Each structure stands twice: as structure tokens, then as C-alpha cells.
Amino acid sequence: MGLTEIFARLVAQVGKAAIVWRRLQGSTPEQAIGQAPTIPEGRAQGRIPTLKMPTAQGWAPGQTPTAAPGLQVNAFATGLDHPRWIHLLPNGDVTIAEAMSKPGPIRTIFGYAMFSTMKRAAAIGVSADRITLLRDADGDGVAEIRETFLKDLSQPFGMALLGDTYYVGNTNGIVSFAYTSGATHLSGPGRKLVDFKPGGHWTRSLLPSTDGRKLYAGVGSMSNIAEGGMAIEKGRACIYELDLTTGSSRVFAGGLRNAVGMAWEPITGQLWTVVNERDGLGDETPPDYLTSVRDGGFYGWPYCYWGQTVDDRVPQDAAAVAAAITPDYALGGHTASLGLCWLPAGTLPGFPEGMAIGQHGSWNRSKLSGYKVVFVPFANGRPSGPPRDILSGFLAEDEERCYGRPVGVAIGPGGCLLVADDVGNVIWRVTAATP
User: Fold this and answer.
1) Whole-angstrom distance between the N-terminal and C-terminal Cα of the chain?
2) pLDDT single digits (tens) 389-398
3) Is the pTM for the entire model greater than 0.85?
4) Could you give the C-alpha distances from 41 to 38, 279, 306, in angstroms and in order?
5) What is each CA distance from 331 to 99, 160, 273, 290, 373, in whole angstroms?
6) Where are the beta strands (DSSP E) in 39-93?
């Protein structure tokens, strides 16, 4: 057993003691979910925040997540290397971004504790830095063709195809490549379109505008609550808009700590995103959220959360707090809601139209949350009810182990739902249950 593993186990024991102590300070809050959530008052956890993550175990042969009644799930592809994001090409090919967090400088005991815990959870390490193409040529629901589509990238995440140009959201910027329908490999260095600061929340999701003239990119913060000052956060915690005709880019909306998945709601034409909120204030404080995104809107980070609730750990800006927009729909504290796609009515039996959300799962709460794929129903362009599970069973009942962790979600070939699982190293395929 290595030093890192020994330290991780020690951290887990200290974490359990801290969790017990915090539970003694008050009752366990109900989950902050929906359009009018009950959010407990924030209690700063100080230098020893709650740190609880399950050990990554992976799936046993034949084991799968649990599909909701009326649905079934099978492995579309296995043996990948930390698959995070999914993109469906017009010919039915599926491209998968394989990348992961890379260790940075460790300056504190808590930093080492976090590194050790993330390593045990298979959440940090050597990044594959590639995009893999999968093809289900015979239509049996399993990809039998696998090719390296792009390699030697920089923590790739978001992908988009517009015409004959394939776009990649690397952690340090957006690059484009020439694409021909049916190609199984792209070559060349690509053309850099815009630069982003790497590090911190490193994912760079991409979503084209409905007319194909612009790209939107989610760029997360460097830190939890701007502990290193706002200068290093410039150009972060926002959604960018890139004009593909002029090459100009701008911040479309800000104050979004870590906006990852994005999708268009087809009735109103509004952009929606899921956002990972700050840590260190309690199990349900504040909740991660799903929200529509206004052009020029400010959503509070780092000064406040869920509207104008001030985070007094942060030096304040009264004007920014006054301008903060309340999100539309709470998803619960620390669920790490990352994946997002619009699910038209009838895609999955028994599910109306709405949003599918991949919840990667918590680390900063006493009882784990997330670790599943959920569905939020919509009506008239707005969330219209409580979330429902699509896939669960990623987490063992004792919360000590996880078999997988869902991330990206996307409509796949034939109208199935595909789910990227970066611990199980699987792409799951969800369809109607066969009679």
C-alpha cells in the first residue's frame, strides 16, 4: 500500500469523525430541489471541510446501472479511458472525449488530502487527451468499430460539428479541424479560435447556436470562492459566445461558478445550463442548479448564491449582489450535475419532454448525493415537476464504493440516450425495455 493510499484512508477516517460532529450540530436537511427550494443557512466549514468520496471500484462482468421502470440499459462501449463527453455525428458515428483532471501543485495538508481522496476515487491522474470514434455499423446497440479520432489534445471535453468543420473544446481554448463525412480519423494540429485559461475547473463544453453561426463554451472558475483574488478569475466562471464569422468572442453570461452542460429549450429558444455551486457551506448549501441563461446576465458567483444570499467568506461587491439573477431550478447540494441534453417527448417511454442530467456525485457532504442520471420535466418552456431517475445504481448502498460515475448525456443513434461513465469507463445506452 503506497503513501497516498495510506493518507487517503486516514483522511477518510478523519472525514467520518468530522461528519459525525457536524451531524450533531443539527438535523439532516431535506434536499434542496425544485423552483422554490428550502436552502439551509450556510455554515462555513473552515479549514477542514467535509470530504467524503467513495472508492472507485468499476463494474463486475454483467453488472449494469439500474434503469427506471420501462427502460433498459446496455453497454454501448467498454474499456475506454475516463470518457467524459459525447457527441453524435450526422452519420450515426459517436465521438467520445477521454480526459481527466491532472494533479497540480500541492501547497497545503488539505490539498494533499484532496489529491489522495480524488486519486482513490479515480478522479485525477494521467489524462488520455484524445477523442475516440465509435460506430455501431450493424445497428445492434453495441459499437463494434473503435478508432482514435483525434489525439495529443489538451484535456478535450466539448465537441461540435458544423458543416465540414469539427470543433473541440480543449481546456486552453477552442480548436477546429476539417471533417469529411464518414472519416474515422482527423489529422493536423487544428486551428486555434480562442484561448482559455487552463487549470481549476478545466472542462470546456461546447454548444452551437441553432443557426450554426456561433459557439457557446462553458468556462469554470479557477477556485472555489476566488480565494486567490478576482484577477486570476478574469474570463472565467462564465459562458463565452464565439462568433464563427468574425472570430470575435465575448462573455455571454457571468457569475456561473462552473457551468458545464448546455442545451437549447426548443419552445422558447433559450439557452439552459447546469451549474456546480460552491463548497464548504453545508450539505445542501447552496444547491447546484439548472437555469436558463440571459445574455449579459450575472448569476452571483463568488459574492452570493441563489439570488442575493451573500457568502460572507468573500469580499463583497454590493452592485454585483444586487444584479444577481436567481436560478430557475435547484438540483440539490453538491450533486455535481455536469451532463445536460434536451430529451424530446417519446424519446424514452413514460418520459415527457424535458432535460436529462448526468450527476457525477458529491464529495463535500455527509451523505452522498448525485451518482445518477435524472430527468427534469418541462412544460411551456419551463421546469414543471420534481426530478425522476433515469439511471441509478452507480453507488453502493454503504456509500463506500462506486461502480461508475455518470457525466455526459446525449441522444445517440436511433434516438437512444447515451451516458458517459468515467469511473466504469463505459458508454451506457438507454432504450425502451423490450417486451
Assistant:
1) 48
2) 999 999 999 9
3) yes
4) 10, 13, 12
5) 25, 27, 12, 7, 12
6) 55-56, 66-67, 71-77, 83-88
